[in-house]
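Revision sheet: structure tokens.
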Amino acid sequence: MNSPYKTIKSLGVMCSGGDSPGMNAAVRAVVRTAIGLNIDVYGIYKGYAGLLEGNVQKMQIASVSNIVQRGGTILDTSRCLEFFTPEIRQEAAHILCRKQIDGLIVIGGNGSFQGAMDLHREHGIPVIGIPGTIDNDISGTEYTIGFNTAVQTAMDAVDKIRDTASAHARTFLVEVMGHRSSWIALQVGVCTGAEHVVLANEVIDYEKIAGDIKKGIERGKTSSIIIVAEGEKAGLSYQIKEVLMKDFNINVHACVLGHIQRGGTPTALDRLIASKMGYAAVHALKDGLDAHVTAIKKGELTMVPLANCLQGKDDSLSFEVNLIYALGI
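Predicted:
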């Protein structure tokens, strides 16, 4: 439900949760678009925690110069568990009121969007979400800022690891990020020609993994790559390694890529989509639309209700899963 329409004279923009490449491009687009529309724009540093501390600064065009190519976020970010408390959200609403900030643009993932939704429902704050997470796990949109860069980074690393795997006739388990999502693992598996992909939170079929490795050997392959989605806790690849070595006598090496997937220069696709989303978010607030998210549907930018973006995607329905089965990965 939209808040009663009011003219937006000023807005705040923040990044919340885990950082993702392209956030700076989105911040740049928000700032430049808002100023072009004669809307004052305030950067809220360190996410919801920074808002509660009053860490808010007015931004100018110069504030976002030379940031589009940078990873991370110039606004910094944080995870603020206190924000799930109604009394804390009430204080945040009071701070926005005292700072004379009429609307809020939140760049982040599911938890960040839930905080924005609660602010809207409880205090009528006009909010727009921009999906920024490398996991690409937000429902309501086909794409989140940072996902393409994370896949490219992981793919480059796997290509290098395969060189070593081939030189030494070894099998490598390469663990990629994805707390509750397999999207990075799925696309990296397809793009690197992996022998097997272990999805997040699935029951691990060790017989299948070992069988896929042995089939490759029978075809004359001297090395194999297994992509592992980390799941709830990083280090799953080491567990798989121990079982394969102990129960199947397969010599395996594990490599956890970790946070290198979050950093680095954003790809052209991430910069472009982030810029489009930042522009659209400001215009949505200006036009009286709130509690919505900038989203990609069938390759096109659109706005979807924020309430539709609070659940994770279902990996089992993804095109990539069917593609992996079709390719015999």
